[in-house]
Amino acid sequence: MGKATISGGTRWKAYLERLAKKAEVRAGVMEDATTDEGERVAEYAAYNEFGTSRVPPRPFMRKTLERERENWIRGVGALLKNGLSPDEALEKTGKRMAENIEATIMSNMAPANAPSTIRRKNRAEAGRAGTLVDTGALLKSITHQVPK
Length: 148
Prior knowledge:
This protein is mainly alpha-helical and 148 residues long. It has one domain. Helices cover 59% and strands 5% of the residues. It has helices at residues 9-22, 41-50, 60-81, 86-106, 115-125, 132-135, 137-141; strands at 26-29, 142-145. Strands 1-2 form a two-stranded antiparallel sheet. The chain is elongated and about 60 Å long.
């Protein structure tokens, strides 16, 4: 996409609406993300996000989306207004989205870990496998994409 120069309220709004229909930016754990041992991260990230029958949900994606969505939308508009191309604006926004998701993960998501998880973490410190958060695999897997 090339540079865009739009002035005037209704033309600007119409331009943003057209752009929004064809523009896409993704952030989070991508389908092909793996741990150092080759395990797929997306499946375990979903367990964290939505919980399981034994693990409570710790929604790092939904929590970030709820908190930052309007900021991301306004940010794209501001970047376009400041002369960035749509691709550049989406790339910068995707990077910001990924950084916001990482910040949520690092904020020590609630609820607190169960005693069995704490024991597993202690074993991890002794050289055994730990959780995605403790090993850093989840955090390292957060990225963004601007599909073409």
